């Protein structure tokens, strides 16, 4: 039987006499509460397609289960019965997110409300997959003990890896992650953590973070560029991650032929150029934290990748027409700005009017966006 995390969810998180965490109507209301902090019950009714009676009944059920908290009445809503403010109860559950890139595993723990409880990382240098995962597990245990987190409230694990999806929970990652490639990761990780594990491409995990915590909270149609050791991304359509037929929508590197591939904006090539120029930058994580646009080789690399970058931006604009393109992954903000400054939109005006082009936005989520997205993925899959 194919691996499915949904069948492994523990009973205390499921609805009574049901095998689901939340019904479709419950999820729609939880999504609205997430997107509108401080919403009152009467305001929620106005935003929902459900009747007032249905909204009240569903909220009462969610409150009884400890998923939603009914707070103090919200002031300033006019006459009539006071309407309590709504809040997702972070204490109901927490999840752990892992993001595996070429040199590090980032770890992030979030609660159901989206609050980050802990962050850390494990370096991959000279360590095999098994040893690295053992260290990740010890980090998780340490966080649980330090924060007093109950194992019964541990809902699941989200796992993102820098590689494209093949089938099931198998991914094809870059050379530094060859040991992680072409194997079923879901069962392996479930055996280690004892909790359901949702696997995904790392760039898609970063895209989920942008949906839940970043620009995607306000912009419903955007493209996310994930600059890492390799280069990929994701697409958001009407506020939801667009997967495509095989789960690889947004694998932007696939548009380049073999020769162009070497001039795409993948950070591995910048790292190699810096090292050839004698700049001491040992890893992409280090580059992110200490980036200096005056390093010898940076300007040269940006000039070299600009044609391929511009063709990509215009291809996204032509095919997908997003409202915004977000620069994320492990891209240093100053480096992202250098590319933005070189952007050329190829569209020509007609009758003096040009087609609207997407805004170019630097993500504000930081280099651990993929770990954040992976952490919230179990909740997004089942609650929101």
Automatic annotation (TrEMBL):
<dbReference type="InterPro" id="IPR000600">
    <property type="entry name" value="ROK"/>
</dbReference>
<dbReference type="Pfam" id="PF13412">
    <property type="entry name" value="HTH_24"/>
</dbReference>
<dbReference type="InterPro" id="IPR043129">
    <property type="entry name" value="ATPase_NBD"/>
</dbReference>
<dbReference type="GO" id="GO:0019262">
    <property type="term" value="P:N-acetylneuraminate catabolic process"/>
</dbReference>
<protein>
    <submittedName>
        <fullName>ROK family protein</fullName>
    </submittedName>
</protein>
<dbReference type="Pfam" id="PF00480">
    <property type="entry name" value="ROK"/>
</dbReference>
<dbReference type="InterPro" id="IPR036388">
    <property type="entry name" value="WH-like_DNA-bd_sf"/>
</dbReference>
<dbReference type="InterPro" id="IPR036390">
    <property type="entry name" value="WH_DNA-bd_sf"/>
</dbReference>
<dbReference type="GO" id="GO:0009384">
    <property type="term" value="F:N-acylmannosamine kinase activity"/>
</dbReference>
